[in-house]
Structure formats: structure tokens, C-alpha cells
Amino acid sequence: MTLAAARHGSAWARRPPCCPWPVARAILPGKRKGGPIAGAPIGRLRVTDSIGRFDYVIVGAGTAGCLLANRLSEDSEVSVLLLEAGGRDDYLWIHIPVGYLYTMNNPRTDWCFRTEAEPGLNGRSLDYPRGKVLGGCSSINGMIYMRGQARDYDHWAQTGAKGWNWDKVLPYFRRSEDHYKGGSDLHGAGGEWRVEQQRLRWEILEAWRDAAVQAGIPATDDFNGGDNEGVGYFEVNQRGGVRWSTAKAYLKPAMGRPNLTVMTKAQATAIRLDGRRVTGLDFLRDGVPSRVEVGGELILAAGAVASPVLLQQSGIGPGAVLSEHGVETRHDLPGVGENLQDHLQVRAAFKVDGVRTLNRLANSLVGKAGMALEYALKRSGPLSMAPSQLGCFAKSDPSRETPNLQYHVQPLSTDRLGDPLHRFDAFTASVCNLRPQSRGHVRLRSPDPMAKPVIRPNYLSDPADRQVAARALMLTRRIAEQPALQAYNAREFKPGADIQGEEALARAAGDIASTIFHPVGTCKMGPAADEAAVVDERLRLHGIEALRVVDASIMPTITSGNTNSPTLMIAEKGAAMIRADRKARAAA
């Protein structure tokens, strides 16, 4: 579970804590100088009208797109256009960390997608937030800085993604990073992507950490060295208690460059092809049809949902799926939209006595006022908190080579996502299977580019995932039974201590599980011999010239942890390859 459990439900979620105007002025992005940024209508355009020709056209100003725009526009000889379907990041609640409660399921900042009804979740459908604003998901996510495990990337390389092993990707993580401890062999300093410690502690989380150690899980102060086993506090992408998004880190510093143009409220609708080569892109700008000519490359950075759907709407994808919706197949590429993977978290909750939790503060006028005042004065306290503060990586059984479970532990509880926080003190220990075997898909719902896509993750469809979910709940119970938590009389009320046995626990997991919003894999990277692969190791689309995908959709398998910073690494490495390839072509 994440702190989104409270949104639109608890007393403090329905009425956001007050935030003095000077605080707002200090947090909101400053006025941009230099390069153009546009969101207003530019006149009545016919579909044949073109805004001109650009060397690079990037679709999506999210985590990957903002970095790509920065890195590619460093070359003053090229022109770069960045298109974003959402608006500017000038909404106050983007910047206050706890404000993520008001950005998800908010059409101002979120696409407000939902999954199809999931058999593995006993027929439930889940909200599926995706950022629709400058900064994309980095403007609405949980801000947790996590790379995953070295084995994740070594596995990519072993399956055909040459050059994506841990030793090769680590320099790109370090290049972006500005770690609060400074530079080292593992961490970078002076980069754009700020990594800091969290600015609050909870007694109940300290007790959970101690209980995990008592259960045999080692303590750690760094989850990002290649082996993330252990329990400790998450590091976050914040600067001084304020969210640090890719729009702030990468896009804003590049806005003074005359060769970079950014358009908001501009939704891509179709890729233009001449045979097997991309020549342009159709898009709607404030609902008005237009197009842009692509002189060099079109780069899709719209994410694991939007990138494959745009390809499908353009006639690139599984021929049978396209024909079903009346879309002409321009290039039959079976893997587009397939291979969807996500992290499903199972939310176990426990009542406690004799310790303060967020439940108590959130249900008190004095508590809410105190939180607002602390943040206004110090940029600390609950309003500065990431959705999850304490993390833990463990094994569902001893036979595992590396941890296959991740915990997000919060000092709060609720019946379900969106409901009020309980009026009794409690904590939630959400645990997810880091390497799910279940595979789903993302597909267009109709030829209408404005129609919401079909998202079917197929959670818990693989028996191995059901077993891991059950064993994860067993481990959670073993941690709760340790002396450090029993000092507060920790007692399970979700899913319920009376539920016993693997099969019963697996079914209960389907009732209480929810996504952590980590969709990946729908434009899988791999060699041409792999029929499921969509892009090669240089992120070029198989069978189409001048088209790359550079976002989380290219992951062959999901990383062992939160996926935002791995996506940033993909963009950093992708930008370097794009520039190197351009230089090689010029020299040829």
C-alpha cells in the first residue's frame, strides 16, 4: 500500500492541509526564461498543416522525455521538439510531497486509467495512475530512489540486450545522480537527479525495522549498491523537503536553449510513414489537428501504456489486434503492447497500542494544523513524507538467490485505497513480488486516439505468483510476531489472522492487493530473432527506420524495485546512443 490509500477518503485528504501563500510561492516552479513553451491554441489548423521540421521529435515530457530533451538539445546544431499531452507543472500539490494524494486520479495531472476486471484479484479493477503533466510520473509518484538489483540488468544482457548489464548501466545512474552523501564508486555527485534522506521518523517504523532484523533480515543504509537485501529507510527524490521531478531537474534548465521547443496540451495521434521510414507525426494541440515533420528521429517516451498504444494506432503492432479494430497493418510487430509486467502489492495491516500513527494525526484538527505548520516552517513532518518511508527487501523462501520481495511500510491504515484512514492506531506492511511471472498486455480500445486503452495486467494468473503472495504474507506475520512489534501489541486485522494455508492466503491476497504503478515491458528490448521483441539494444524499432522507444516499456523484465530511476537511466543511456549514432552517420 502507498499513502494513496488516504486520497479522497480521510478527513485530511478531503480537505487538504492549509498551506500559506508564501510557502506556495517558494515551492512552485519559477518563471521559465528562454526557449518557447506553449499550451494555448495556435489558430485553426487543418490536419494538413505542419508546424515545421525538427531533427528530433520526442513524444512525452515525462521521466524519460525531460531528460532526452535536455541531453539532445545540448547539441546546438540540432532542433528538438518535445510534445506533452498534459499541462504545466504549476499545480501546488505536485511540489508538496504529500500532495501526491491530490495528483493521482486528478484529471489535471493523471490520465485516470483503470485496468480491466482482473480474475486474479477476484474480479476487481484497479486505478492505474499515469502522469499527464510536465515531468510525467515523476511529478505524481512516490519519489523513492531505487535502482533495482545488479542481477536485473545482467539478466537483460544475457537475454540479448547487449550492453545493458549492471557494469554498463551503473555509469548512467551515477551521471544523473546528485547524492546527499557525495560521490563514490556507487553514487554520483553534481548530477541533476537529487537524492536525499527523508525528513521525518516514526516510532512504529523504527519498531518494524527492529522486528525485521529480529526475523533475520539485515539492516542496511543503502538499497542502491546492486544488492538491495535488507531493511532501512528509503532515499527520495526531493530537494529540501520538496518534490524533485524531471521537469525541474532536466527540462527547466534547458528551456533557455533556442533549439528546444516544448508544447503542452499536445497529444500524439498517429505516426506518419513513407514505406518503412518515419516522416512525421500527427497530433492534437488543444484539440486542433496538426503535424510535425521528422528530419532525424521520432522518439517515443510516453511510457509503458501510451507508447505501445500510439504504435498500434499507427498500424504498428500485432496484425490480428489491429485488424480487430479496423486499423490497417503497416508493420506487423507481434510484441507491441504485450509482455506487460507490474508490481502488485499485498497490503497487510496491524493494529497497535501505545504509539502514535498517522491515523491519529489525520483524524485530528490539531494534528492536521500541526502538520501544516511544521511543513511551512521546516519543510519536514508528514507533509514532507514519501508515500512509503521504510523499505525492506527479503526472500519469500531461502532457496532464492537474491531478494524477491519488497516491503513498503507506512504508519497508517485504511480499508481500501481511497477510503478514510482508520480512527485507531495501525500500520500497513505492503509487500510485492519483485519478479512476477504473470504477463499482461496493453492494447488500443478503438481507432479513436482519445479512447482509453485496454490495460490487462493478468495479476496472479501464474501459480508461482500466487505462491509468492501467500508466502509473503507468512513472512509479514513472522515479522509482526517479533518482540519489537509485540511491545506495541501488533495484531493483524487485514487480511485477518484466521486466514491460514497457502491457497486461502493467495485468494485473500487477491482481495487486498493493489498496484504500485510500475508498468513496464510493453515494447520489449531484444534481438530481432525474438518474436516478442519490439526494439533492439539501441532502442531502435525493429523493421522501422528513424523510430526509437526510450522509456520503461523497453524493459525485457521488470527491475527489482521502484521503476522511476531505472527509467531515467534508460533515457540517459538512450540519449547517449542517439547522439553517438548521429555522429557516426555524419562521419560516414
In short:
This protein has 588 residues and is α/β, with parallel strands linked by helices. Helix content is 28%, strand content 20%. The protein contains 17 helices and 25 strands.
Number of domains: 2
Fraction of helical residues: 25-40%
CATH topology of the largest domain: FAD/NAD(P)-binding domain
Q: In what range is the share of β-strand residues?
A: 15-25%
At the fourth level of CATH, the homologous superfamily of the largest domain is FAD/NAD(P)-binding domain
Top-tier CATH class of the largest domain:
Alpha Beta
Overall pLDDT score = 91
Q: Strand pairing plus helix content: what structural class?
A: alpha/beta
Main beta sheet, described? Answer: 8 strands, mixed
Q: How many strands?
A: 25
**Rg, please?**
23 Å
Tally of alpha and pi helices? 17
Low-confidence stretches: 1-26, 31-36, 38-46
- The best one-word shape is globular
CATH architectural group of the largest domain:
3-Layer(bba) Sandwich
Cofactor: FAD
Pfam family, one: GMC_oxred_C
Protein name: GMC family oxidoreductase N-terminal domain-containing protein
Keywords: FAD, Flavoprotein
